[in-house]
Design goal:
Elements (H helix, E strand, L loop, with lengths): L1 H26 L7 H22 L7 H25 L1
Helix pairs in contact: 1-2, 2-3
Length: 89
Amino acid sequence: MDGLFLYLLVLNVIGFVMFGVDKFKAKKDLWRISEKALFGVALCGGVVGAMVGMHVFRHKTKHTSFVIGMPCILVLWIVLLVYLEMQLA
């Protein structure tokens, strides 16, 4: 479980930073991080960091796909982690 914790920690930091970088780039009218990449890091385990980044940077908070999609991904991860915990117990 220690490896999984480290994996999720790193991905959540990456997800948080990606939202901050994309918001910065949006303000400066620079090349942006794709929505596919933002969702991808969330699906891979960085959903908490992505959601925190959304709110801290006030980025993508008016996009329905993110407002609904991120909590759905979070629920999927919670279910997966509970399942894994039950299997290891």
